[in-house]
Design a protein that fits this description.
alpha/beta, 5-stranded parallel sheet, 11 helices, 41% helix
Length: 246
């Protein structure tokens, strides 16, 4: 990997923020024209929009910093711009941290306030996640998920969200068992469930469950798939790759 050129870090100017909001609207327009059923805005895990929400990252002194109202302003600008571009009926989802789980990070209360603002701006559903990448055991993709108790590790926060917001709630994070996925929806803790790593190991998992085979997802939650992606060698399941062909 080549060394990156020396660059200086600076706070985004208002013009940068406006340009970014416009870029999101243009991307949404392309997605709709390409035939996608909807779009999702990623505002979790310590990426840019997540950093705007988090006091640990957002040190701005203008209208985009300070209160959670201000820290979520860029999201409001982006969603409004997208709505003007794609219309009122095109689905917009947002992936949101319930908490950052780091010192001075986004709190549950602030996240709820941001969720209310997103809903008022025209978001159709929220996918609830949490944590910041590379922060230890409370990062978004946790390892060692080998029991029901360790699955769905944001479910307590999801219950709070479900009581407070009026738009559909999707839960992601460590869901591996059919019975738990079904229970989360049947009990009203969430409206939908979402998974990532299990599909890297087993793309046909949902078809298997639908066929009546409700055994646990084969994913080992070792994160080797994510490490390969970060190294630029492609995202794949190494357990599956190294297993004897059937």
């Amino acid at each position: 990997m080549k060394d990156l050129p020396n660059t200086s870090v600076r706070e985004m100017a208002i013009e940068d923020i406006q340009e970014l909001a416009g870029a999101y609207a243009e991307a949404a327009e392309r997605a709709k024209a390409a035939g996608f059923d909807g779009i999702q805005i990623h505002s979790a895990h310590g990426y840019l929009l997540s950093q705007f929400l988090s006091p640990a990252f957002n040190q701005r002194q203008d209208e985009y910093g300070g209160s959670i109202y201000n820290r979520s302003r860029i999201h409001y600008d982006i969603i409004q711009g997208i709505r003007r571009t794609v219309g009122q009926d095109y689905p917009i989802l947002v992936k949101l941290n319930c908490q950052d789980f780091i010192e001075n990070g986004l709190s549950l209360d602030d996240s709820l306030q941001a969720a209310h603002r997103l809903a008022n701006a025209g978001v159709d559903a929220i996918e609830l996640s949490g944590g910041v990448i590379k922060t230890g055991r409370l990062e978004p993709s946790r390892t060692g998920i080998n029991s029901l108790e360790k699955e769905a590790y944001f479910r307590d926060e999801a219950r709070v969200f479900k009581r407070e917001i009026d738009i559909p709630l999707i839960l992601v994070g460590g869901i591996r068992s059919y019975e738990l996925a079904e229970k989360l929806v049947e009990t009203g803790d969430v409206d939908y469930i979402s998974m990532c790593r299990p599909f890297i190991m087993e793309p046909g998992l949902i078809n298997r469950w639908a066929s009546g085979d409700h055994s646990k997802a084969l994913c080992k939650s070792d994160n080797a798939c994510l490490e390969s992606g970060r190294k630029g060698t492609g995202v794949c399941c190494f357990v599956k790759k190294l297993s004897p062909k059937r």
